[in-house]
Amino acid sequence: MNRRTLLTGLASLPVLPLFSGFTLAADSPLSAQPPTRLAHPPSYWRDKVSAEAWKVLFEEATERPGSSPLDQFYEPGNYLCAACYLPLFRSEDKYDSGTGWPSFTQPIEGALGTKLDFRLLWPRTEYHCARCGGHQGHVFNDGPAPLGKRWCNNGVALRFVPADQPLPPLRG
Ligand SMILES: [Zn+2]
């Protein structure tokens, strides 16, 4: 936990209720239809993702800053949930926040749900994949204009698909 994260954590106030505003379709990942919410227990995903990814996604662990190859990575493409493959972010919205975690100015509409996290004494707004419920990261109010948001994501919880490759089918 670095100083920047401590300070920005204080500025992060409630934004949205959990899993509000679904707009993605399960059968058409980038379209504007609600995703089908999966009801699998965390154990369902154990053999489908790495041990490190599982801890982040289903035990809400946080990867060490600077540890993800996706942090300093700016190729064109889409960032999918590492568990269920729902597209969560586009490369156009990725930027270098200097925090050591992959950061985005906005998610794909409806791909994420948020809730307050009081784990660190002050509230932070954490967000989850709207389809499988996997924990991805936290959103802060110190992002670049005009949106002003920093969606701070664990790289290990993402799967990158280059723009010139087809998206894999959703799984789960
Ligand atoms: Zn997911």
UniProtKB/TrEMBL annotation:
Catalyses which reaction(s): L-methionyl-[protein] + [thioredoxin]-disulfide + H2O = L-methionyl-(R)-S-oxide-[protein] + [thioredoxin]-dithiol
SUPFAM superfamilies given in the database record: Mss4-like
GO cellular component: cytoplasm
UniProt keyword Zinc present: yes
Top-level class of the enzyme under EC nomenclature: oxidoreductase
Ranges where the MsrB domain occurs: 42-163
GO terms (BP aspect): protein repair; response to oxidative stress
EC number: 1.8.4.12
An example Gene Ontology molecular-function term: peptide-methionine (R)-S-oxide reductase activity
Coiled-coil segments on the chain, per record: none
InterPro entries in alphabetical order: Met_Sox_Rdtase_MsrB, Met_Sox_Rdtase_MsrB_dom, Mss4-like_sf
Region forming the signal peptide: 1-25
Keywords linked to the UniProt accession: Oxidoreductase, Signal, Zinc
Name assigned to this protein: peptide-methionine (R)-S-oxide reductase
Organism: Pseudomonas jilinensis
